[in-house]
Amino acid sequence: MYIFKTKEDLHQYLSLRNQSVGFVPTMGALHPGHLSLITESKKENKITVCSIFVNPTQFNDIKDFEKYPITIDKDIELLLSVGADVLFLPSVKEMYPEGIDNTPTYDLGILDRILEGAHRPGHFNGVCRVVEKLLRIVSPQHLYLGAKDFQQCLVIQRLVDLLQLSVQLHICDTLRESDGLAMSSRNQRLSADERVRAATLYSCLQFIRTHAKDKDFSSLKESSVETLAAAGFKTEYLELLNTETLDLMDDFNPTKHMVLLYAGKLGEIRLIDNLKV
Ligand code: AMP
Q: Quick one: CA dihedral 32, 239, 167, 102, positive or negative?
């Protein structure tokens, strides 16, 4: 595996090989969820590039940025174990020679005003800023993203459309721990006790999906938020989204594509998850 720290070196490597490139952007602290995206990319591309960059412009909470886990030696071992071809590991200066405050704005429409957009002001703008830079550096034909960050996938599709980039998005399933908790780099910051209670989130989402046929969403939401509160969660939102119109729905509709989306804090750690209904 090649490791490049500068755009120039990565660019030179890629321009010498005229082959299909699959790209997996990450912030490191890799786990099997990230590795599943690399495996997916390897099936469909000659070269798989993974980036590790903890992007300062997408953290609306500075404490979250400062405490983001960095495990680079282990990450390199994991990338080698799944056969990634290239790791792009830039510094903040390499990615933002213009400084991080000089922010362009992206017209994300309703996506910037609902759910994560409403609860994390500026977050998606920061995501778009770094993803635009990365896509222009790597120029992949295929981009692999995790369904765990459902709204982020919609935002990046919007970015690709806005910039008219010819890259195809692949949304890969969420990998979960054996108790159902969605794998996340942030999980390692949960205490042992919180880690056990964190499983309540997925069981509540499943409970809602199971009862979607015989109960209304508002009563299921109320009882789930109560169950989650008893497990220590402070819920930010639990909503039902029509994935085609991007409308938040009051109730289930079997003729529409819908997804349940959750965000909340368990202790200091903010967790998100989602489930199609
Ligand atoms: P992150 O390092 O958290 O920015 O995530 C990098 C990529 O991995 C994003 O596309 C995430 O959606 C994806 N990802 C994170 N967790 C999971 C998971 N549990 N299963 C599948 N993909 C994931």
A: negative
Q: Which residues pair with 45 in a beta bridge?
A: none
Decide: 89 in ligand 1 pocket, CB within 6 A. no
Pocket test for ligand 1, best of 23, 26, 36 (most atoms within 8 A of CB): 26
Does residue 35 have its Cβ closer than 6 Å to ligand 1? no
**Distance of alpha carbon 4 from alpha carbon 6, whole angstroms:** 6
Total-model pTM = 0.97
Structure tokens at 73: 């030696």
| C-beta 154 within 6 A of ligand 1 | no
How would you write the pLDDT of the chain (277 residues) with one tens digit per residue? Answer: 999 999 999 999 999 998 999 999 999 999 999 999 999 999 999 999 999 999 999 998 899 999 999 999 999 999 999 999 999 999 999 999 999 987 789 999 999 999 999 999 999 999 999 999 999 999 999 999 999 999 999 999 999 999 999 999 999 999 999 999 999 999 999 999 999 999 999 999 999 999 999 999 999 999 999 999 999 999 999 999 999 999 999 999 999 999 999 999 999 999 999 999 9
Tell me, yes or no, if 34 is annotated catalytic. yes
Distance CA 127, CA 137 (A): 15
